[in-house]
Every structure is written in structure tokens, then in C-alpha cells.
Amino acid sequence: MNKTSIKRIGVLTSGGDAPGMNAAIRAVVRSCVYHNVECVGIFRGYEGLIEGDFQPLDARSVKNLINRGGTFLKSARSKEFMTKEGRQKAYDHLKKAEIDALVTIGGDGTFKGAIVFNEEFDFPIVGLPGTIDNDINGTDYTIGYDTALNTVVEAIDKIRDTANSHNRLFLVEVMGRDAGDIALNAGIGAGAEEILIPEQNMGRDRLIESLKRSKKSGKSSSIVVVAEGDQIGKNILGLAEYIRENLEEYECKVTVLGHIQRGGSPSCYDRVLASRMGVGAIDALLNGERDVMIAIVHNKIVSIDFKESLKGSNKIDESLIRVADITSI
Ligand code: F6P
After folding, report:
1. pLDDT, tens digit, 9 for 90 and up, residues 52-104
2. Torsional sign, CA 225, 178, 314, 76
């Protein structure tokens, strides 16, 4: 039921793309159709908002999309939206197109922009957390994270084959910006020897000690998963050099997984999560909520205050560190 005067809703994706964003757009569009509200696609995130790059979307515009990675609306990291002038242009385009509310799908940068915009123009916005990093406060999972984990595990399984054949040590760098969620969970899932994450500074020498111990205990090859934001892992080539100088037991190789982690067909979990969140976004807007993020908490879809989402990133689950330590013995 539409308890508001909202007749037309815009949807955009912004920041780094994440698998499942298309499924979220699809759910937003079809939810609008279900509620007899018009839906407008905004291309290239806030850049398209500033330039008025809009296109009406109907149920068939989003066909054959649920299985596709990336975002068909395209994405951008807009510098102009950080300026007052840029946001004013965006507002003018929204007014001209008679768009009454926005759904923004993205990460913390997207939400920061949305919060400022909402404060300046009192414009109803609902955010969906879409980022592989899983670094948004207040939601257990973000759209794209599960797929990225599976991509990383699949890649490390392959690296393990060659590591094992040559008795080598591999440092595998994974994404996550300042968060260690991808590294920690994919590391456990792929059976890594050590996992370096920004939330826990291990130090180079403890790493060397640990690798020596595992070699002594009979391991012939090793995988170390390194989060890109980790203190000693940030310079992964430097770390590899240090290991080569201080650990004779292994030949050390480096693999940086990079943007393959952002691509590919979304996992079933991400498709369902994105669908639930997309429906939740339109429910929230038509219920009169504004300035909220849709989150999943204990497998329930809820809405939380937008500002909550930016209160530091999700803390790492300490019990996972213990699991990683025990299972890598
Ligand atoms: O936020 C998603 C993410 O893939 C991070 O993990 C990574 O640090 C960053 O984006 C890379 O950004 P870009 O694609 O702009 O290089």
C-alpha cells in the first residue's frame, strides 16, 4: 500500500560495482510496478543524476538480468556530487523529471553522498548496501559479498594445485579496502595457513615464525591470504621480498586477484538478498520512511537510520580468527 504521495522513484548504482546489483535493480523496478509507481533508471550513479541521464524502466526492461554481474545502469565514483553545485544540478534534474524519491545502491561513499543530499534538499532516499567489501555497519551482509567470497575461494583452490605441485608459498592478495571480511572468510573457506587482515596486525616476524612452524609440522606448501588493507600486506611485493630473505623453506610467489573479485554471475545467496532488499526498499519508501538503509540482520530485512551505516565499519567476528587459527594447524 502506498501511504505517501510518491508516484515516481529513481534508482541508481554508485561506487564499485558488485555482483547482485542487477538483481537489486530488477527487484526495485518490479516492486514499483507491483505498487503502481513509476520507476526511472539513472545511469552512471551520481554522475548521471547531475547530467539528467534518466530512462523509464518497466518490468520487461529488467528481464534476463538476475544472473548478470556488474550493473546495467553502470556506476561511477562522482567527484562533482561532492560539491554543492553538483548536488544542486542533481536536485534540479530530479525535480524536472518529477522524481519523488530515490533508491541508491552502493557502499559507504554512495551513502555519504545520499545523506548530505537528503539533508540539503530533504529528499526521500533509501539505500541498499551493495559492495563486495561487507564493510557497512548495521547489516550482516552486503550485496555482492557472498559472490566475491566464492570467486576468491575458487581462485585459491586453483592456486593450491600449483602451490602443492611445486612446494611453494603463495601470498594471495584480496580486496576489501579497509576491511578484512573477504580475507578472513575466504581464507577459512580455502584453508589458508595464515590470513592477514587490517583488524589484527600480525607483524612480519610472527608470520615468518608461523610459516616455519607449519613447514616443520610437515606441510609442503602454504597459502597466505592477504587483505589489501592489511598493515604489512599493503606492500605485498615488499612482504614477499622480506619472506624470501628470511624464510628459506619455501619459494615465495605472489598473486593479486584484483577486479575478478567484483565480476561474475551473482551467487544464489546474493540474488535472493538483492531481491529481498530491493522489495524492502520500495516497501520502506511507500511506508513513509526516508533516509534509511535496508539491512539484513539475523536473516530479517530491516531498515536502519542511514547515519548508523557509517558508524565505523562492521567489526570483525573474533571467533572467526580462532577458527582460522585452529583449522590451519
Ligand atoms: O569497494 C569495492 C572495491 O572493490 C574495494 O575492495 C577496492 O579497494 C576498491 O573497490 C577498488 O576500487 P576501484 O575499482 O575504483 O579501483
Report:
1. 999 999 999 999 999 999 999 999 999 999 999 999 999 999 999 999 999 99
2. negative
Cα of 131 vs centre of ligand 1, distance in Å, is 9
Segment 110-113 long-range contacts (CB within 8 Å, at least 24 positions apart): 110/14, 110/15, 110/45, 110/46, 111/136, 111/293, 111/306, 111/309, 111/310, 112/310, 113/14, 113/46, 113/78, 113/81, 113/82
Q: Which of 14, 47, 74, 132 for a ligand 1 pocket mutation test, highest count of atoms within 8 Å of Cβ?
A: 132
> 38 to each of 8, 10, 42, 44, 237, how far by Cα in Å?
5, 9, 13, 20, 51
The model carries a pTM of: 0.97
Beta strands across the sheet bearing 125-129: 54-57, 38-42, 8-13, 101-106, 125-129, 292-297, 300-305
